[in-house]
Amino acid sequence: MSHFPDNDLTCNDFLNGRVRLWQPRLGYRAGVDPVLLAASVPATRGHTVLELGCGAGAAILCLLARVPGLHGVGVELQASYAALARRNAAENAASFEVVEADLAALPADLKQRQFDHVIANPPYYRAGAHSAAADDGRAIALGEGTPLGVWFDTAAKRLAPSGYLHMIQKADRLPDMLAGCTGRLGSVEVLPLAARAGRAAELVILRAKKGGKAAFRLHAPLILHAGARHEKDGESYTPQVSAVLRDAAALPGLSGQ
Asked: 10 Å Cβ neighbour count for 113?
């Protein structure tokens, strides 16, 4: 099936309605992670952005909504999600084109292009390292089919000189991410994301620069929720994180953010 029937979709607001996103009711659904990823990118008007594995387009559409005057390209393997991303691009009036392709085998014309920024939210789990998902789309989105090193190789090749890669991943994949940068990207920075103060980071955002020579930087964790534990219904995001999720603010914690 190349398209989701409308009755299998929901339309959800991101960034307080700046982005309206159609996504499958039962398949892979975007949460806060792509919004945080989009908020980490120091893009400015006129820049170009490539998202590898764009899904329905949550991350890149949030970035395009936050920074006017960007042009985005998304690469998506699954035909149904690529079609959904095109629909979301049109309904959000975004300068965003979608290429249905395997990121390990990009079309020839895309291989001729370079971008100021590449963003990626690869599958969080190594193949066989998580419980199987009943929905095929969710299974592909969550379970690694393409080795993480291929994501870095593709990103590095598509970045313009001095361009930046931003990637969000599980913290336990950080060694793989650093290995992926070796020989390809430099000036690596890592921002850990911790649910609450005193807790270990579950996610990290990595920034790396093509041709970068700066020393590695490990930043203090960004705390997502206020308080030592969840005590009541409703949201408990810190004011900084709430500003990112609701008001399209830049993500604090990385250099220049």
From this structure: 12
Domain 6-247 falls under CATH 3.40.50.150: yes
Rounded Cα distance between 200 and 139, Å, is 26
Q: Report the alpha-carbon distance of residue 14 to residue 127 in Å, rounded.
A: 30
The domain segmentation of the chain, as residue ranges, is 6-247
SS3 call for 9: strand
Longest CA–CA separation in the chain, Å: 53
Structure token pair of residue 70: 């960007």
Answer whether 89's CB lies under 8 Å from 57's CB. yes
In angstroms, the CA 211 to CA 156 distance is 10
Which pLDDT does position 27 carry in this prediction?
A: 80
Q: Which residue positions in the chain have pLDDT lower than 70?
A: 1-2, 126-144, 228-234, 257
Question: 203-209 and 186-194 as β-strands: parallel, antiparallel, unpaired?
Answer: antiparallel
